[in-house]
Amino acid sequence: MPQYTIYTVGHSDLSWDAFARLVRPYQIEVLLDVRSFPYCNDFPWFNRDQLEHLARREGWEYLWLGALLGPLTEDGRVDYLTKEAEPRYRQGIQQLMGLAGERCCCLLSSQANPLASHRHHLIAQTILRYDIGVEHILPDGETCRAHADLFHGLQ
How far apart are CA 93 and CA 34, in angstroms? Predict the structure, then answer.
């Protein structure tokens, strides 16, 4: 049994109201934005400044951790093994686990499908090793528990 659970969600092309309805049932206290670039031209309510304001209206604290937990390595590549070894990433994981140990947290990225996102293939794989549960909130409102990827299990 995991110590506690961290949720993840992708905003996709949802309106703010639809997004809030999707997340509300999980009693989230902290919305952790793990996008490297917290902006979305097509859906401006997911831009960092607007998102922070809207999250506060829902009673959620908003934190941008994309500089630490975003998918890009320090040299701008997508390479999960390299990213996991970076000190800034490890610092972000420690910050995430500290917050999640005290409050209900949800990681936010843009992809609706967690299997198309670094929130599953990178962050979830790291924190699963610490006996922390990860539940992906799916577009239909259901959740699916994250499991270790074979790729990460071979390290």
Answer: 11
**Which positions ≥6 away from 136 have C-beta within 8 Å?**
7, 8, 9, 114, 119, 120, 124, 143, 144, 145, 146
E strand intervals along 47-141 = 61-64, 105-109, 133-137
How would you class 139 by CB atoms within 10 Å of its CB: exposed for 0-12, middle for 13-18, buried for 19 or more?
A: middle
Question: Which one, of 87, 106, 86, lies nearest residue 96 by Cα?
Answer: 106
pLDDT at 148: 92
pLDDT band at 149 (very low <50, low <70, confident <90, very high): confident
The reported pTM is 0.94
**CA atoms within 13 Å, Cβ hemisphere of 151:** 9
**Lateral strand order in the sheet of 143-145:** 61-64, 30-33, 105-109, 5-10, 133-137, 143-145
Listed by start position, the domains of the chain span 1-8+16-28+40-74+131-149
